[in-house]
Design brief:
The structure is a homodimer of 309-residue chains. By secondary structure, chain A is of the alpha/beta class. The first copy, chain A, has helices spanning 35-43, 65-68, 132-141, 154-159, 161-170, 178-185, 190-199, 239-253, 259-276, 283-286, 290-304, and strands at 10-13, 17-23, 26-33, 49-55, 73-79, 86-91, 98-104, 124-127, 147-150, 173-177, 204-208, 214-218, 221-225. The first copy, chain A, has a nine-stranded mixed β-sheet, with helices on both faces. Chain A has a four-stranded mixed β-sheet with strand order 3-2-6-7. In chain A, strand 2 (17-23) and strand 3 form a beta hairpin. Chains A and B meet through helix 7, strand 13, helix 9 and helix 11 of A and helix 7, strand 13, helix 9 and helix 11 of B.
Chain lengths: 309, 309
Amino acid sequence: MTNSSDSDEILVVGSLDFDDVETPFGRADHVLGGSTIYFSAAASLFARVNVVSVVGSDMPLEAFDFLRERGVDLAGLQVGEGKTFHWAGRYDYDLNSRETLATDLNVYADFHPRLPARYESSPFVFLANIHPDLQQEVLRQARSPRLTMMDTMNLWIENERDSLLETMRLVNMVCMNEEEARQLSGSYSLVAASRYILSLGPRVVLIKKGENGCAMITPEGYFMAPAYPLEEVYDPTGAGDSFAGGFLGYLASCGELSDDNLRRAVVYGSAVASFTVERFSVDRLRELSRTEIDERYREFRRLTLFEPL
Amino acid sequence: MTNSSDSDEILVVGSLDFDDVETPFGRADHVLGGSTIYFSAAASLFARVNVVSVVGSDMPLEAFDFLRERGVDLAGLQVGEGKTFHWAGRYDYDLNSRETLATDLNVYADFHPRLPARYESSPFVFLANIHPDLQQEVLRQARSPRLTMMDTMNLWIENERDSLLETMRLVNMVCMNEEEARQLSGSYSLVAASRYILSLGPRVVLIKKGENGCAMITPEGYFMAPAYPLEEVYDPTGAGDSFAGGFLGYLASCGELSDDNLRRAVVYGSAVASFTVERFSVDRLRELSRTEIDERYREFRRLTLFEPL
């Protein structure tokens, strides 16, 4: 991580798909999904976003007009011959356990990220949950980014551990959920799990705990933020990616990667994620304003503040 | 809740027992346990505590010398003919799921709380997890307490619901863990569960979330505190009761039951509980100092603080 740049652009590389989602509150069929759409919808509220992903010829490209209007660059969006990645899943009433009903990779199966020339100097890079080999392909194309952050999933932890650890050695920040951190480290304790991840190279670890908020661990210490207390989590899909989008978007909009700004970024990420889960797909993020986010940021202060001794 | 008193005494009514505990880190046999011992050991670091409980003739009364030395009054401790309540349990590696191996009520089976005359005017009352009929027996003997708080458990929610709801109507504050709140309210959402509990009468609800901290809900809003990030939770037994002891102990030591003080009390409770789980039984609480607690309070500030916009 370096501390000087005059640009706030964020490169995101990840999936774009059609989701069929069923939650205790309803269902949504054939809606926009994938890490990239959630990340971009969130981050573009703060900074400029450059997208690298793939869709099939069945994707109406006007679906992304709302992102273009926020200055999202889609020059890196590949349109493959065939169908777009499709995912179907169902959440239990506790919204933590998710059953995958279908995963049709389609054009996503042969995806290799290719950065348009002007993306190569993006100062911020988010490697969403894709195969760790592909994450490294992105890093090889990026030129001296200020900050690189990665996500991952249980599939790569189980089946592609060596490659995953190599990606971890190359990035500044890792975000993953608590089950993944435990699986990766072989330790139930998140303190021990975080120390293990830091030992691999990253300077910052973000542990996403769903309804229990988020912990940020750096060599200097811990920061813990709660999740916003919602009456109903309508659809938790995309909460983690829109957290990452709010987090990195805010950081990209800051002059300085200080500890104060990292903490604020965690709260901004949590605030954006709390909106995401109020509706299906990116429906809430489409209409979300910075004013609403800032108001929720203030609510997080009221939620957590207590006086010194 | 009233806001004026010149005394800081807390009455606690609950169990005292011998525990056999097995955790992934070791085992402890025939050690002091029960809600009352944890609550008293914690609260006595802040305020004067009056104990009502029962033990058998097999309990060496010098076991409580460390409490007497901190000014705990044991005049309300009944010594029954027979053996002391005995509990045996085992925790899984995740420390959340607990298997009960033995519950021998012994003298505790016939326990009825009797308050010594000088306890009747205790301004603070903690009704630990006992049968809700017994909790009401205590309330009938107490004379205009400033603040009453209750705990409960799944057994009473299932089998003694009417009596439990009656106790809830009579107290100012309720603390319970998140599973209990969900079970009681029939709602997975803790926002909905808390609103249900507030609708029964209490002004303050404390939802204990174990390693995920604690939420305090009042009609004015929410306050969320994390749990202290520990490398190892050696033995989670008594975390909830020592949380309650730190919480109510701090409040009893304050002049005023303001929102600021309630928030501080949640942090003090969380700080004390984080020490409890570092060792078996009340071993860590025996040697704990107010200086150590205050230092951990400051660490909670560093854990959670972020700057305003």
